[in-house]
Amino acid sequence: MSVLVYVEQAEGKFKKSVFEAVSYAKAIADQQSTQLTAISIGDVAESELKELGKYGASKVLNVSADQLKTFVNQAYASVIAAAAEKEGADIVVLSNSFSGKGLAPRIAVKLKAGLADGAVELPSNDGKFAVKKTAFSGKAFAITELTSANKVIALNPNAFGVKENATDAVIETFAADIKQSDLGTLIKDIVRATDKVSLPDAELVVSAGRGLKGPENWGMIEELAALLGAATACSKPVSDADWRPHSEHVGQTGIAISPNLYIAIGISGAIQHLAGVSSSKVIVVINKDPEAPFFKVADYGIVGDAFEVVPKLIEALKAHKG
Amino acid sequence: MKILVCISNVPDTTTKITFTNDNTEFNTSGVQYIVNPYDEIALSRAIELTEGGKGTVTVINVGEAANDPTIRKALAIGADDAVRVNAAPRDAYFVAKQIAEYAKDKDFDIILTGRESIDYNGNQVAAMVGEFLDIPSVSIIKKLTFEGDTATIEREIEGGKEVLTVSGKFVASCAEGVAEPKIPNMRGIMSARTKPLTVVDAVAIEEVSKVTKYETPAPRGTVKLIPADQTEQLISLLHSEAKVI
């Protein structure tokens, strides 16, 4: 019995959401009085792998094979499941990232395991292994009991937090047996906007809606986001009208996010939009309509015209930052 | 091209979500059901890829007879025929196993789903079907095109996108961007009544998970309103009270 956490790398580095998954997996390992092993696939320097010890991984399996330099869903799932079996790990933890969402279900089938994805808390420690996960697009949580012997959990970003737990991580090479039939997908290109904060795991998000009147008015939204180090997002009508890309659409049919701070500007707060953002820790609403439903779920609000309030907010923020 | 599209029967997006029986069951009273919006995107792309006699689209749903109106809606949008696996869907593992069992000897070229269902938000079925059938799966795709039998796919990743190719059979879960959802026209609605809807039995599979209880998010306190000309007060509250900046 042990816990295995998959640590997803991007260009040889681990992101905060990975350290969060390791922290979460370590807390489960403690609950089960067992050890935590991490598995990394791709080219990652030893110094970066050692970082995982800081959050409680006592062993790191390093897989670096030529065919696995970039993400191959099927092959990565096979390697992680094989490592779980070899290590005798009955619990596998991943980040509920885009890649994690593709891996977790395949690992679950390989291990005949129940899968709780979108987990927001530690499993119950009462022998039932019940995991609280998001459901109904943020309108509710489902307490899901994993009744199988093996278990897979995909943790939502920003749900648990990063917790240091200094351990000296031993790094081992894990020789993966790669089947040709697992290499059916071939990556041609990876495009990353490096100057922007990625929305799904952003801690701060500035979002705007139809109240902005047109795509030409997003300059102030981007300026505010850049000052805060926040990601930008938008409501459905805005992405439907192609004012902003679909990848920025948050809400029930867009992506669900749970940042520490969500600033909604010129968004009325339709139930479908609220569903995707209601698990944000702090919500600020700026809207000229005092009756906008968004104010009912906000922590802080300003009733006012976005075109007047946002520039003033930018000024105030600049003054605050000195 | 022969395409299988998996559709889920979900509460309408405007539904107020409540629970009964000591919060152990979803309260279905007064709830309108729809085709899961992401599955509609998958279905719409499948129809585009097969239009003009270039192939067929079959939709599959795992559920009880109450789901038939939703399945007919998918037929009205333009699927050629439908299959319902007659069982209450227990979890994604169960649903994926049923779909894989049905599909394994039917020679579908591709299998499409939505990126997630808007009720359980799983995004599990596509990759699980891929695993049960031992074929590639690509999750949360934004674009799907074909050149011969090689598909080019754009997949969302944190802060960007990945472009990949896959030859041969595969499963993909579709997000916004793959297609504009099609709206059924009158002819579609009329013809949906007579299109074939086959009901098949479920296969047995071990239980791996069960939902034991539901919770609703804790209500927030009353909003603290700040005058529009005092934005510096908001910054100071976010810094010292909320401690988020």
Describe this structure in words.
The complex is a heterodimer of chains A (322) and B (245). With 322 residues, chain A is of the alpha/beta class. Chain A is 27% helix and 27% strand. Chain A has helices at 16-31, 46-50, 73-87, 98-110, 219-228, 236-240, 271-277, 306-321; strands spanning 2-7, 9-10, 13-14, 36-41, 59-63, 89-95, 114-119, 130-135, 140-146, 151-155, 170-173, 185-192, 204-208, 231-234, 261-265, 282-287, 300-303. In chain A, α3 (73-87) packs across α4 and α5 runs parallel beside α8. Chain A is elongated. The termini of chain A are far apart. Chain B is α/β, with parallel strands linked by helices. The termini of chain B are far apart. Chains A and B meet through α3, α4, β7, β8 and β9 of A and α3, α4, β9, β10 and β11 of B.
Write the layout of secondary structure elements.
The complex is a heterodimer of chains A (322) and B (245).
Chain A: E1 2-7, E2 9-10, E3 13-14, H1 16-31, E4 36-41, H2 46-50, E5 59-63, H3 73-87, E6 89-95, H4 98-110, E7 114-119, E8 130-135, E9 140-146, E10 151-155, E11 170-173, E12 185-192, E13 204-208, H5 219-228, E14 231-234, H6 236-240, E15 261-265, H7 271-277, E16 282-287, E17 300-303, H8 306-321
Parallel strand pairs in A: 1-4, 1-6, 4-5, 5-11, 6-10, 7-10, 13-14, 13-15, 15-16, 16-17
Antiparallel strand pairs in A: 2-3, 8-9
Chain B: E1 2-6, E2 9-11, E3 19-20, E4 25-26, E5 33-35, H1 37-50, E6 56-63, H2 68-77, E7 81-86, H3 92-103, E8 110-114, H4 125-133, E9 137-147, E10 150-157, E11 160-167, E12 170-174, H5 186-192, E13 197-201, E14 209-215, E15 224-225, H6 231-240
Helix pairs in contact in B: 2-5, 3-4
